[in-house]
Every structure is written in structure tokens, then in C-alpha cells.
């Protein structure tokens, strides 16, 4: 099984389109609505055809929506369609199913939205399997619906930067880079030139005399993109690295993060490593709540355990938000 990671993304609301405007102070009471309840109702009542993107041949299906305290988890199946293919039994090497142009091979991933009371910042936790997941598509759908309903406000989403608690004073234990579809440049006659044959993985660990840690300057350079992982780990020329993972330790606790390749040192937290089965829903929810607690504590918010539990009432589940349909936009 491929690794599973959690990406952290925050949402804030401003009146108008100017990012200099003051943030809405309480997203749990925004224009008389609780954004968390709108999030639940939006996906719990999502028309199934709305998430079929014919332009991108992208398919998403909502399987479940789970409310726990001040968090809502959306369980989704997602994949692409438009290419015929086969489902192979890896034990017998026989075809168990032939996939048509209108069928999609999907992956089950989850998206959690956490919003404590009286906060101006909400937190999305986006699960991905390797590079695959529905979370970002679902966030975009939610934002479009909010913008259509509250046209006088802007809904800003941003990647959460590397938490200071883990960026300052943490020890770097390992750096690993992964290319998921490696295509070696082998001579004709051995195999088709440039054909992907598997995953390429390179890692850097401390030498015996380094005290079990890598230099702190290297950790900073990786976070701020001052050094290219492909050069550091001697990847073949031109090979694209899909993921860079760093394992760090602070105050006796170890975590593995995926460093995104954009300019911001955003993070994805490893929740299962290669070969491990995905977390079931209850452990997944607990892990997300743990990461949410760490996030809000960096904002100076005292986390309350009551936010992680609690059954919703029928009234809370009754709130809804209509999906945005592009054909509803005025062309005037």
C-alpha cells in the first residue's frame, strides 16, 4: 500500500475582495450560520452527478459524512475515467474485470474540517494516498458554493506552513525522495526506452559518527527550498521527484512530513507508511484531531477535548448549502 499523508489547509473569511480587510471574527456564527454545519449539509446532500467532471474525466462520489463534536469528516471515492483498462488479480495474474471508458478505478480518501467555536480560522485536513485524493477538489467545491451564497465576502484558503514547534529545535533524522513512476534510460533491446518500471527511492541517513542526526542547516535548507532534493540525493538527471519526506524528532517525539515543492514550506504529515493498511475511520479521525489540536495551539487557542466528541442534533444536521452551478452565473 502507498503512503498516506495529511495536508493542512486553513480557511479565513473577509468582507469584500481586499485581503487587507479584517477577518470575520467567528466562523461558527458567520452571517447567522455555522460554517461547520454548512459543510456537513453541503456534502450530506450533494447530488451525485455534481461531482462528475466531464472536462477532466474526473469522478468523485461521497460515501459518508461523519459529524463528531466540532469536526466533520467526508469520505469519498475518487478517480479518473475515459481510458479502458483491466483489473488484475495480482495472485493469479488473471483479469478479473475489464474497465470501459465510462468506468473509474477509484481510491477512498477522507477530508476533515475542524472549526472550534468563536474562531476566525477553520482547518481542513486532506488525506492523500501517494499523490491521489479527493480533498482539494472538495474544498474547491465548498468554496465556490460559499462564494455564490455570500457574494460580498472572499473565502481565502492557504496551505499551513511548517509549524514553528517542529521547525525550531527539531532534529533531522532522515531525508527521503520518491519518484513514483521511474523510467530508466536503458538501451534498446533490454526494454522499451523510457518505460516506467517502478518506484525510485533514495534516502540520506546520518553517518555513524554524527550522533544519529543530520545537520540542522540541512533541515532549514530543505524547508526553505534552498537545496534541491534531486541534487542532494543524486537522482538521475532530469528525473522528477514526486515527494520529499523528512523524519524529525523533537522532545522525544518523531514525525515524518512530506515537503511540497512549491515556494511555501507547506506540510503533509505521514499517517501510514508504505506497506501499511490505511487507517480505519475512527483512528483517522483521532489522528486528525491530534494534528488540529497542535495547529490551534500554535495560534494561541487552548484546545478543549469536548470539541473532539459530541453527537449532533437534528437541527445541526438540517443546515444546508446548495452547490454552485456555473450555468447559474450571470453573463450580463
The total count of helices amounts to: 7
For the record, the count of structural domains works out to 2
Strand segment tally: 14
SSE sequence, one letter per element: EHEEEEEEEHEHEEHHEEEHH
Spans of at least 5 consecutive residues with low confidence = none
> What structural category characterises the helix and strand content?
alpha+beta
Give the fraction of residues assigned to helices: 10-25%
- Give the overall average pLDDT: 87
End-to-end separation: 50 Å
In percent terms, what proportion of residues is strand? 25-35%
This entry's quaternary arrangement is single chain
Give a topology summary.
Elements lengths: L3 E12 L19 H10 L7 E2 L4 E11 L2 E10 L4 E5 L4 E6 L5 E10 L7 E8 L5 H15 L3 E7 L4 H4 L3 E12 L15 E7 L11 H8 L5 H4 L10 E8 L2 E7 L7 E6 L8 H18 L15 H5 L14
Antiparallel strand pairs: 1-8, 1-9, 1-14, 2-3, 3-4, 4-7, 5-6, 7-8, 10-11, 10-12, 12-13, 13-14
What does this molecule look like?
The protein folds into 2 domains: 4-160 and 302-328, no CATH class; 165-265, no CATH class. Strands 1, 2, 3, 4, 7, 8, 9, 10, 11, 12, 13 and 14 form a 12-stranded antiparallel sheet that branches. It has 7 helices and 14 strands. By secondary structure, the chain is of the alpha+beta class. Helices cover 19% and strands 33% of the residues. The chain has helices at residues 35-44, 135-149, 164-167, 216-223, 229-232, 281-298, 314-318, and strands at residues 4-15, 52-53, 58-68, 71-80, 85-89, 94-99, 105-114, 122-129, 153-159, 171-182, 198-204, 243-250, 253-259, 267-272.
Amino acid at each position: 500500500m502507498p503512503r498516506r499523508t495529511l495536508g493542512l489547509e486553513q480557511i479565513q473569511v473577509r468582507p469584500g475582495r481586499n485581503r487587507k480587510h479584517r477577518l470575520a471574527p467567528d466562523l461558527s456564527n458567520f452571517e447567522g450560520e455555522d460554517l461547520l454545519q454548512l459543510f456537513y449539509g453541503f456534502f450530506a446532500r450533494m447530488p451525485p452527478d455534481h461531482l462528475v467532471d466531464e472536462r477532466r474525466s474526473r469522478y468523485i462520489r461521497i460515501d459518508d459524512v461523519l459529524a463528531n463534536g466540532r469536526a466533520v469528516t467526508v469520505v469519498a471515492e475518487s478517480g479518473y475515467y475515459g481510458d479502458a483498462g483491466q483489473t488484475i488479480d495480482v495472485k493469479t495474474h488473471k483479469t478479473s474485470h475489464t474497465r470501459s471508458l465510462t468506468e473509474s478505478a477509484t481510491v477512498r480518501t477522507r477530508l476533515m474540517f475542524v472549526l472550534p467555536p468563536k474562531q476566525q480560522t477553520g482547518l481542513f485536513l486532506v488525506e492523500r494516498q501517494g499523490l491521489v485524493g479527493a480533498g482539494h477538489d472538495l474544498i474547491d467545491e465548498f468554496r465556490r458554493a460559499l462564494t455564490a451564497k455570500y457574494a460580498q465576502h472572499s473565502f481565502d484558503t492557504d496551505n499551513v506552513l511548517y509549524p514553528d514547534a517542529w521547525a525550531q529545535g527539531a532534529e533531522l533524522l532522515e531525508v527521503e525522495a520518491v519518484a513514483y513512476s521511474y523510467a530508466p534510460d536503458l538501451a534498446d533491446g533490454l526494454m522499451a526506452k523510457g518505460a516506467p518500471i517502478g518506484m525510485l527511492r533514495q534516502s540520506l541517513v546520518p553517518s555513524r559518527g554524527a550522533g544519529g542526526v543530520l545537520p540542522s542547516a540541512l533541515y532549514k535548507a530543505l524547508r526553505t527550498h534552498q537545496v534541491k532534493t534531486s541534487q542532494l540525493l543524486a537522482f538521475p538527471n532530469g528525473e522528477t521527484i514526486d515527494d520529499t519526506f523528512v523524519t524529525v524528532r523533537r522532545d522525544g517525539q518523531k514525525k515524518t512530513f512530506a515537503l511540497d515543492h512549491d515556494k511555501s514550506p507547506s506540510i503533509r504529515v505521514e499517517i501510514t507508511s508504505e506497506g501499511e493498511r490505511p487507517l480505519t475511520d475512527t483512528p483517522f479521525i483521532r489522528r486528525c484531531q491530534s494534528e488540529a489540536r497542535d495547529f490551534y495551539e500554535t495560534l494561541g487557542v487552548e484546545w478543549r477535548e469536548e470539541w473532539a466528541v459530541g453527537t449532533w442534533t437534528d437541527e445541526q444536521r438540517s443546515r444546508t448549502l446548495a452547490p454552485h452551478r456555473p450555468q447559474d452565473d450571470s453573463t450580463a
